[in-house]
Amino acid sequence: MLRAACHLLPFLLACSAISLAQTTIERGSIVEDRAARKLLQAGDARLEVGENEKALEIWESVIERYPRSAIRFEAHLRLADYLLKEQREFDKARVHFDAAAQEANPNDEQRAYAFLNTGTCYYEAGRYGNCFKIMRQVIEYFPASPQVNEAYYFIGLGHFKQGHYSRAIEALEKVGTALSDKDAKIEKVEAGKRLYIKIDDKDFAILEPGEQIKVVCKTQSGDQETVPCDAIGRNAKMTLGSIVTQLGNASPGNGLLEVRGGDLITVTYIDAHTAEKTFNARRLKEVLVVGNGIARITDGSYQHDLQAAVLGKPLHLQISDADHDTSAGVDRLEATIHVFQRKNSDEIDEEIADRVANGDLEEAPEGETLKDQIDPLKLVRTLPIHLRESSESGIFRLALPLQAGSGVPKALHAEPGQIIRLVYLDKRHLGDGPHTRTAQAKVIEGNLGEMRVTRTEIPDQTLQLKTQLRTASALTQVGNHYQEFGLDEKATLKYSEALIVCESILGRTQKIGGKLLEETYVQLWRIYFAMDELNLALAMSRRLQAEFPTSAFVDEAMLQQAHVERKRENFARAIGLYSAIAKLPNSDLRGEGQFFVGECYEEMALKATADQATRLFEQSFLAYQAVYESFPESGRVGNAVAKMAAFYYQKEDYARAVDVFENVLSDYPDANFLDVILFNYGRCLYKLDRKTEARRRFDQLIDDYPESEIAPEAKKIVEALKKATAPATP
C-alpha cells in the first residue's frame, strides 16, 4: 500500500505542476487583457477630448504590446473605423479590418463587422469586384448577423454604379430586417427599413409555380397589410416576402406598413399542414419597431455637424430616434447637456494621490504613467433639455442660446476652451441594452456663420489643412457622382472647386512635408485624372512615387499612370506598368494589374491585322488565365473567367466554352457582363444542337437583363427557336 502511494506521489506532483502551470498561464492572460483594456480606454479618452493622433498611437501600442490579447482586435477596429470614416484612407483601414476578421478572433460579432467593412473599403475605393466577393462572404459566414442587410446594400450599390440595374434591384430588394423563426423571442425592425418575412415549411415543396403564401402584418397603432411571400427556388422549403415600414398614421391596405415608435408588429401565417398532423394552425411572430438614435451638434440649417460652438450664438442640437415618434402630434424627447473643463496639473496630481490612497488606482501598465489613467476632463455643469419633433418624423431639434459666464441658472453657460457634450440615452435600438449617444463641440469666441461649417476658425494649422483636404475629397466625390449621371458641367464645376482647395494648400503642405504632403499629391492626381488632365495626372503620380517610394498609394498611382497610357493607346507602356503592379509583393491591386494586361492585349488585337490579332488574342487569354490561377482572391476572377469563355467561343471550342460559362454562372454571380455570358452561352448550346437549353439561357437573359443592349437580339433568337421547334401543322 505504501509502495503504491510512493509510486503515485510523482504522478500527483506532476499533475499539480501541470495544473499550476495552466493556472499561471490563464492568470497571465487575464492580467494581459486587463492591461490592454485600460490602454484601449486611455485611447478612447484621448479621442473624446480631440487628441486624435495621440489616440491612434495608443491604440497601435495595444496591438504592439499585447499581441496575444483578444483586446487587440478591438484596437484594430478602433483604428480601422477612424481611418475609414475620418481620414478616408481605405487601404490602410482595410489592413486593420482584415486583422480583426481573422478566425483567431473569438468574437463573431466583431468578425462580421470587420468583414463587412473590409468590403466597404473596397466599395469606397471603387473596387467593386473585391467588394462583391467580401460581401458574399458576409452573407455566407454570418447569415444571422445584422451585417447581412448591409452586405446586400453594398452589393446593390456596386452593381448600380456599374450599370447592372437588374442585379442592383435584386440585391437592394433584400435590404431590410429579416424575420427569423428560429425561436420565440421578439425580433426588431428599424422604422423606415424593409421588414423581411421568411417562412420555412416542407409543405412549400408542392407549391405550383407562381403560387404565393399570404402573411398578415398588423401593428398596435392600427395598420394592417397582407404580404405575399414567394417560394425561393424550385421545390423550395422556404418562402420570402417583404414590406416597407414607414413612420406615419395608419392607412390599412395601402401596401405600406405605417408604424410609430415602440410599435409592435404581429405577423400571422396559417400553416395548412403541421408536423403534428393538425390543420390550419395559426403561427405568430412579434416584431418590435425601434430607432437607432443619433445625436448631433449642427449649424443653423441642421445640415452640417460642427466641432466648435461660438459664445453668444445659438447652439443647434438634433437627435434622430424613431422611438419617440409615438403620436400624430408634435412629440418631445429628453436629453442632457454636459459642460466639461480640462483639469490642470495640480488637479490631476491631487486626484492621483486620492485614488492611490483609496486603492482605486493601481500601478500603471508598462509604458504608461498614472496620469494616463486619469480622465483629463471634469464636469462643471449639467443642463436637462427637451427637444421638439420637427416636421420630419422622428427628428427632434432645439436651438439653445450659448452664453458666457454664469448668468441665469437654467440657461446654458460656458467659457472659451470648455467642451459641450450632448448626451442622449437610447433605451431601445437594434442592439441589446441601453446605449448612450453623444456629440460634442469645443467652445470658442468668434463667428462660425449661421449656415456653413467652412467658416470655422481652426487654430491648429495641421488640423486646418486636413479639413481642407477632406473638403477637396468630398467635392471630388460629388463631381464623380455628377459624372456618373452624365451631368458633365456640374461635375467639372465640383472638380474645379476641389482643385482650387488643393492648390491653395500645396505650398503649406510642402513646407510641412510628411503625410500631409503625400495626401495632397494623391488628392491632386485624383482630381487631374477625373478632369481628364492626363499630363498633369501623370506628372503628379510620378512626383508621388519619387518623393514617397514607400507610400501605400504607390500601386494606385502606378495603376492611374497605366490607365493614362492606355487611354493614349501607348499599350506597350501601359502593359509594362500593369505587369509591374502584378509583381508587387504586398499590393492588393496585383489581380487588377494582371487583368488589365489582358484587356490591353485584347484592345490591341481588335485594332490589328488578322495574323497579328490571333497572336494578341492568345496573349490576352494567357493574361486572363493568370488572373484565375495566380490571383484567386482578386475581385477580377469572375471577369477573367468570362473572358476566357469568350475566347473559347471565338475558337469554336463550344464544349469547353460551355464548361466555363457554367462555372461563371454558379461561382461568380457578380461578374461583369453576365448578359453577354448568357448570350454566348445560348449560342454555344445552339451550336452543340442543344436547342431547348439554348432557349432557356436566352429567356434568362431577357428576364434578368431586360435593359441590356443585346436583349432585343435575344428576343429575335427566341422567336426563331419557337418557330423552329413548333410542331408542323397538317
Structure write-up:
With 730 residues, the protein is of the alpha+beta class. The chain folds into four domains: 28-175, Tetratricopeptide repeat domain (Serine Threonine Protein Phosphatase 5, Tetratricopeptide repeat, Alpha Horseshoe), CATH 1.25.40.10; 177-290, Immunoglobulin-like (Sandwich); 295-358 and 371-446; 503-725, Serine Threonine Protein Phosphatase 5, Tetratricopeptide repeat (Alpha Horseshoe), CATH 1.25.40. 51% of the residues lie in helices and 18% in strands. Strands 1, 2, 3, 4, 5, 6, 7, 8 and 9 form a nine-stranded mixed sheet that branches. Strands 10, 11, 12, 13, 14, 15, 16, 17 and 18 form a nine-stranded mixed sheet that branches. A hairpin with a 5-residue loop joins strand 14 (377-389) and strand 15 (395-404). It starts with a helix and ends in a 5-residue tail after the last helix.
Features:
51% helix; alpha+beta; 9-stranded mixed sheet; Serine Threonine Protein Phosphatase 5, Tetratricopeptide repeat; 730 residues
